[in-house]
């Protein structure tokens, strides 16, 4: 979901407001909250953020924070365009240059759920130039796994490691599925394959579980994609030993809040690796944000394995080459939407892609659920 804010000076700011399964809800919320920002100065990002968060009664819910994020990020684009500067210059400059190391996601949907399928797909990712990749080997597990399921997950990670060799970062995704005890057990079994991190091992509603896993896991723990605003991330930094924070700027509060979250993490020597399963506008925004963050580690990208029309959504598509994203260097975020293509792919429920458990190869678990 894309957002454009138009100014009376003829400058338009672009943002993305994608959130899981609630596009029409977010669109409605933007209209409902428009009294906060229509007629305001787009340079007033701090006061806009404060008022939109403070004066909404249920402020820290994902719909509200997604609206705040979109307005904030569109304002930063406007600032850059008016000042004729890329946004990263307004955020302190490109600490990490204008190319960012990225890791691949979205590459393993057609693996059949087998170790061999994952291994073959992982080899293609390396052939595409990536030296880091994320994947979820756990099927539809929740809280705990049977021994058979757990063995298959371990075999999948082992097969991928064998296929890609020792120099590729493997980022193991749990999607918040497990109890603390199960997550620690899984981490100990996977440790021999040297994963770079274990992501979101526990549901985001339990800081205590995350704290326990981060203390006991032999694998570094990454989390944060479903945590909203600096307040949640303060709890993660002060109450757990997680190694990597993964704020999603589209949902947690935009660039204004993202810089504060990065500062909290930097104060405790924790890295930032933002969550990014969204579209190309989000990708461009992350490029500008991440290069300005001293403790940035690596950026998630679906770009290579997304829908075949992904590059057509922008007049100048994002470039991801040899595992690095090139940050657009024009004013603002350096991107413009291709409205004709957007209209061609207008949202309807029928067009939403859903993953069939059987096609994804998780037949055993699907059968158990029946």
Automatic annotation (TrEMBL):
Gene3D superfamilies given in the database record: Enolase-like C-terminal domain, Enolase-like, N-terminal domain
Keywords: Lyase
Name of the protein in its database record: Galactonate dehydratase
GO molecular function: lyase activity
Residue span, Mandelate racemase/muconate lactonizing enzyme C-terminal domain: 115-220
A Pfam family the protein falls into: MR_MLE_C
